[in-house]
Request: fold
Amino acid sequence: MRLAILSRQPALYSTQALVTAAQARGHEVRVLDTLQFDIQISKRSPELFYQGESVGPVDAVIPRIGASITFFGLAVVRQFEMMGVYCLNESQAIARSRDKLRSLQILSRHDIGLPPTVFTRQAEHVEGCIQRVEGPPVVVKLLEGTQGIGVVLAESTRAASSVIEAFHGLDQNILIQKFIKEAKGADIRALVVGRRVVAAMRRQAIAGEFRSNIHRGGTAKKIRLPAEYRKTALAAARVLGLRVAGVDLIESAEGPMVMEVNSSPGLEGIQKATGVDVAGAVIEHIEHDLAQATHRTLGGER
Reply:
């Protein structure tokens, strides 16, 4: 299999883990900088050029697209799709997950637990919005934040109003969410590959911090995911159309709630915490999907 990993940083742990797993299974792997592509659009002949040369034959693509280059990254993934190349996560699914508001709107149509959330652009509506999510306190969250950046716990209505005013002054869109106090600064990351949760860990925030992200000093340990949480994680990935996803869940008095679904989940924290070869599971899933596609094609030719 000729595999392309779209990544701006080849030395990243997640990228290297995928390269190692693919090579161990005998595949040819290239790490391609997403911003080095040129997209050529013409009648019935979509093409991609990498660093000025034709990208050449590719059987499968693993998109590892950072939030800062989402627009161009999605355009590159779409072009691969137009060329008939298998993409592990498709462009539409990545787009859904990248927009926190859109993903919550989609998830809300299904039987999936979510924290009460409000989106507003009007400063005079903030107090009412806080009351509708049973606050204060409330969590104020940037729509495009990652790794805990742009997530603020506002202890009072005045504090929430100040934070929201500041974000709006920077022309940033925000969400106001109910603060789930019973979670006690912990959440669960479930790593979904295909129709399985291949690994799960509980992340705990450091003292004085409510964000449990490992990048913010949180700790992680392997857990056996309860059936209800496994079902919720799988449903969230399926509804958004993601074959691979990091689903962040919070433990509430009402059961599991989905906080976020990540289409390019980091592998370092969860592989080290659980000992599971998640990268190997990803490569195995791609092999299975391509084998199934080949079988369907050959069956149709008979």
Summary: The chain has a mean pLDDT of 90. The chain has nine helices and 16 strands. The two ends are 24 Å apart (CA to CA). The first strand starts at residue 2 and ends at 6.
